[in-house]
Design brief:
33% of the residues lie in helices and 20% in strands. The chain has 6 helices and 8 strands; from the N terminus they run H-H-E-H-E-H-E-E-H-E-E-H-E-E.
Length: 222
């Protein structure tokens, strides 16, 4: 447990054992997934990694898992190698398939799913899959210099309760991606160690974080 000594000082040995027995699926290994996966790997949590894409040069300003030598290679393969070197004590699986309704069984066995995707279609799909399977979902989204994070659970408000179905491409500040990905990782660790923050949206904008209560309103998550 020497690797987690400073974390154990804060969370306690039993919570560290809980983390070490837990498995998180991270869907999307770009900016958000790159940050969150490193934090969670260093925390001692087992990971299942999903991303169908290859590294492109325009990814590099915000996707810290990759360097120029990785351009053209599969993100899932690079992530597996890098994270295994960061913490060889945890179990890591990687998959270069896009999660769909047909292969959603790949998420089975997860204690939590992190939505680190970059498009609204995937986010709403993960929302529906996780609600159906009863797997808690940590949603994350970022654009320009703002971002949002929320824990979604069956029985509580879902993504449709607070997020309109929009899809647009914006500029992104790399530092903002780091902050939002870190918030996703912290929300995940807090949940696994007994702190349930579902029902709240954490909204980051221009160096300020607001905790906003959200309510059921879509009629589909009752």
């Amino acid at each position: 447990m020497d690797r987690y000594q400073r974390q154990i000082m804060l969370l306690g040995a039993e919570n560290q054992k809980t983390l070490s027995k837990s498995t998180i699926s991270i869907v999307g290994l770009g900016g958000l997934g790159g940050i969150a996966s490193q934090i969670l790997a260093r925390s001692g949590i087992n990971l299942k990694l999903f991303d169908p894409d290859r590294v492109e040069i325009h990814n590099l300003h915000r996707q810290i898992l990759y360097t120029e030598k990785d351009i053209g290679k599969k993100k899932a393969d690079i992530a597996l190698k890098t994270l295994s070197e960061i913490n060889p004590e945890i179990k890591i699986e990687s998959c270069s398939k896009r999660i769909t309704s047909r292969n959603s069984h790949l998420l089975d066995g997860s204690d939590l799913v992190l939505d680190c995707t970059d498009n609204m279609e995937s986010k709403f799909l993960l929302n529906d899959i996780c609600l159906e399977k009863g797997i808690p979902l940590v949603f994350g989204a970022v654009g320009e210099n703002f971002g949002m994070v929320a824990l979604i659970k069956k029985g509580g408000p879902c993504l449709r309760c607070f997020l309109p179905k929009l899809d647009r491409t914006t500029g992104i500040l790399g530092a903002t991606v780091g902050i939002v990905g870190s918030l996703q990782a912290e929300l995940a660790v807090r949940y696994l160690t007994g702190e349930d923050l579902s029902g709240y949206l954490f909204h980051y904008n221009n160096l300020e974080i607001k905790k906003i209560k959200i309510k059921k309103r879509c009629g589909e998550c009752e």
